[in-house]
Amino acid sequence: MAKKVEAERRSRAPKGHFVVYVGSKMTRFVVPLSYLRNPIFQQLLNKAEDEYGFDNQNRLVLPCDESTFQRLALFLAKR
Q1: Is 77 within 8 Å of 69 (Cβ atoms)?
Q2: Which first-to-last residue range defines the signal peptide (predicted)?
Q3: Which of 17, 34, 54, 68 meets the CB 3.0–4.6 Å disulfide criterion with 13?
């Protein structure tokens, strides 16, 4: 499941995870690599590419609000 990470405790993602930023406040989440295999998450990544392109300050920003992403992460964690 995705974990919200407080700004003061930013560090590298643990092995088997990666970082995404979500919402207007650019909330940082650490998510498992297994999400990359999910078609729903892949659609969200494609939408991010369409909306932001690849030039985004070395951050993977997802085009949704925090609560929507949290619901998606709960759904993906149950699969």
Answers
A1: no
A2: none
A3: 17
